[in-house]
Write a structure and sequence with these properties.
Layout: E1 2-9, E2 12-19, E3 31-36, E4 66-67, H1 70-84, H2 89-104, E5 109-114, H3 117-120, E6 127-129, H4 131-134, H5 137-144, H6 152-161, E7 163-165, H7 175-187, E8 192-197, E9 205-212, H8 220-242, H9 255-265, H10 270-277, H11 281-295, H12 300-313, H13 316-327
Helix pairs in contact: 1-2, 1-8, 9-10, 9-11, 9-12, 9-13, 10-11
Amino acid sequence: MTALSYSARGDETTTTLAGKAAGPAVRHTPRTRRVLADGSLAPLEGPGAAAKPPMRGRPMVNQRDVVLGPAELRGILRIVEGCERAPTLDVFRQTALEGMARHLGYRHSAFFIGSSFEKAFQDRRPAGHGIALRMAEPFLERYRTLEAFTDADSLTAMRERGLLTLEEFGVPGRPEIRAHLEQFLKAHGIHAKLLVRLATPAGVGAFVSLLDPRPGAFGPRDRAVCAVVGRHLGNLLRFHIQSMPVPSVTTKLSVRERDVVRLVAEGCSNRQVADALCISVDTVKHHLTHALVATGCANRTQLALAWQREVGALPAASRAAAAAPLARR
């Protein structure tokens, strides 16, 4: 069991981890690490450890002190413990959202993932809890096309900030970006939003979106809590993806999805795939997104390699069967 203490001061915070062992009492030396405003951990500090200055250029959680209480710290630990036991990526995402609802009170949330932070907003099958789980597909389709999630400057600002509320969306000189997002969410009964970017490995982008029907529901304490949660979820997601077995491709895809993945594995662009199959580029993207989710592949490259590895290892008859749907057209 791990004990965690947390307090925020200015643009950085401190957290202390102390180990506990079962059986005879064993004395452990506490290890102290700084938790920066974006939730990242500084190197261990102690005898012989070089002190590292806090990161600069990142937004502060809040200028006043924020001290998380025992209940919040226990909640964070329960979420981490639950996610550590998740056997698959889908279970991991759902466990994270259910844990945030049960242990921290964030009842309405969605977990998006993609081959990059920008592409995560186009996740066709995000995990959801509460209001987000009940959102109809037309809502999600319209949500993805909002300028807040397609404008390059807006996406860059979100990626750099890591944590931002509804009031912070958009970029200077473009107030209409936030206005359109606010209007859309409020029309569906959502008056507060907090986006939490997860620190993920290369080739993966992920974030958790917290929603609430109450205006101004997310304050400094929520930002402090989510900075820590987001950092831990990112680390767990990193480990989860790296330890995943080679995905199975051919058995998890529909006929059309196999057509698309086969052409992608041959090096075709989305436009070339669309022309070959007489479908639109958007349809190609839809099939690829579903194929990534269905196979557990982190990105387009991993999906292509998995297809080549799996189909190349099959007997000749099986390879012909995998390619048959395209050949029949």
